[in-house]
Design a protein that fits this description.
Layout: E1 4-6, H1 24-29, E2 34-37, H2 43-52, E3 57-60, E4 65-68, E5 73-76, H3 80-92, H4 104-107, E6 113-116, H5 121-130, E7 134-137, E8 141-145, H6 151-162, E9 170-173, H7 179-184, E10 187-190, H8 196-201, E11 204-205, H9 210-224
Parallel strand pairs: 1-2, 1-9, 2-3, 9-10, 10-11
Antiparallel strand pairs: 3-4, 4-5, 6-8, 7-8
Helix pairs in contact: 3-5
Length: about 220
Amino acid sequence: MQPLAVDIDGTLTDDDRALDPRVVEPLREWPAPVVVATGKALPYPVGLCEFLGIPIRVIAENGGAVYLADDDELEFHGDREAAQAVVERYEAAGHELGWGGVDFVNRWRETEVAVNVDQPLQPLRDIATSEGMHVFDTGYAYHVTAPDVDKSRGLRSVARRLGYDPADFAAVGDSENDAGMFELAGTSYAVANADEAARAAADGVTDGAFADGFLEAIDRIRGEW
């Protein structure tokens, strides 16, 4: 069976971002390594792996942070200071990050900064471009990150450290931040709620949305193996 790289929000969740309990057993029983690949800060996928009862193998912050329990090494890519400079200019222009007084979204981020999607995107993109940075719109947040960092970079690292080729992996996700990973993986599925960038990069699009789509995708992956 192929090792699996899977997104969280919009892929393992319902449309309210609650984890769908039906994904727990398939992830626990997957007979090859499972890697949780997300735009969230590192503690979130680590916690998810612990609660699922699977080995901690994570790509966090859109490829900016990679941890594998297999070798107990934590790897960082990106430029947190440059991302902070972008959002400081954004705030100076009269905008906000949009997370309230206690910002748990960014509190533990080490390689990027995330802005709430209820804030204006174009000024953020303009500032990021002028600073040589990139913005991912995941549908859940705008992520200001280094242009050479995405989930494909994380997948390359994970594959090398686990002794696989990236093309050995199957990947499931829903957003433009999954597109690079989709292009690198040997098999990729976008769930039905995915954005256009993810759909275009994926090998297939499921009929089901959110966790329904994930469950459909892994059934297809099993059938292809």
